[in-house]
């Protein structure tokens, strides 16, 4: 079994994109650390980013048959807009953890609503790149049988 880390739109710009909100790590930095974290736990971690809703939907569909056990997902702006991505996750039934770098509850009101949180195992927000590491730790614990 393995873990898929999915990143939504504009996250390819991490490092230079509003660094005061999202930090200075690039997406490549974050992905490299997550793959390492998986290796240390003996769990395969793959990563995928797209700015396109259709590509994210198709990657989620593929997760149904490629042995993905858990998805760690930062839907980015699609968090607040995408019924189609929500429906994709519901359709494949692969459990997922929702991640945000920023504390979406401390920002504009339109960021408070998520189409994903009620279906997620849990939500991690507000810890910058560390949000992904905490979510991955939780995903790994589920797979390796440690309670979390
Ligand atoms: C984000 C928060 C979203 O509101 C925003 O649209 C993003 C990134 C985060 O990681 O903090 O693109 O998901």
Automatic annotation (TrEMBL):
Catalytic activity, EC: 4.2.1.10
HAMAP family xref list: AroQ
Protein name: 3-dehydroquinate dehydratase
CDD domains: DHQase_II
Annotated gene: aroQ
Keywords, in A-Z order: Amino-acid biosynthesis, Aromatic amino acid biosynthesis, Lyase
Transition state stabilizer, annotated site positions: 17
Family per record: Belongs to the type-II 3-dehydroquinase family.
